[in-house]
What we know:
248 residues; alpha/beta; seven-stranded mixed sheet; globular
Amino acid sequence: MKNRFAIVYDFDGTLTDVFYPRYDILNQINSDTLAIIQKYDYLSNEINGMVNTFMYGLIKALADHDVKLTKDNLCFGADRIKYSKGVENYFENINEDANLVDVSLEHFVITSGIKEYIDKTRVAKYLSHIYGSSYYYEEGIAKWPSEVIESKDKVHKIFEINKKRGLLKYNCNNMIYIGDGLTDFESMKFVKENGGISICVYGDKLEECKKLEEYHVINESFERDYTKDSKLYHYIREKIENSKVGER
Length: 248
């Protein structure tokens, strides 16, 4: 019977090279994710959280330009997004290496980004499950958020992953969590404190990884490079090779 191992990723800034998601639909109104959050910040008095603000704000911003948000136009460009270095070959490479040591490897994404969009990306086929924010649609038109994943909600999704793995919710043995900053703080802390490994990846700036190191919520930090010769890849492969069959 194969040993099981799970890797959980944030998406934007972790598997991609941009901190905020870049939805092509916003190009139609000459805007971007951060601009929507800032413009509709007043909504935070009525609703809870930055992600919720963005999701309602996106509907409002498009409506102001007589554009209705649909699942199709929301997903424009999802198949063309730019990933972090090595990502597009990484999943096949690491799965092959796991098979060589008789480990069943599963990949999960937990993100505040919109699930419908990530479902259409080129890496979605490698993911066992995508946990993301989502809209409720009527006749194909987005009406309001049906699920919102703020940073504080990510740990509950790790509970769900462990349940899928047949484990108790606090058992993070044979699990790696990979994120890029303070929005992953609670998830990193939870995984590290419950037997798993937490990794911060960085691009040009190290500031957030350094803060996470100071708070002792990560095990390691690496350059955001998923190629086979990278330090990140070698570290992940080593943890998979050294994994052991654990208790529930």
